[in-house]
Amino acid sequence: MSLDKTSAQYWKANVRLILISLVIWALVSFGFGIVLRPALSSIEVGGTDLGFWFAQQGSILVFLALIFFYAWRMNKLDREYGVDEV
Fold this sequence. Notes:
Layout: H1 3-35, H2 37-40, E1 44-45, E2 48-49, H3 50-81
Antiparallel strand pairs: 1-2
């Protein structure tokens, strides 16, 4: 496999991972916290409704999980394509 083809596959996988992370981020922050908040208001979590919880705390926890997932997955991709740090 040529270097250009390997590089293109690596960046395609990298961009796909970024796009998936951004979609999850947008869905949680904008979707659950703002757009779907009225629908989630009937579900109670920790003494408040689920929409408010996502807007205040849930989105932060999801963002932290996304950071760790992205770092783990990028390390795996780096090893797979031979560009990892030794």
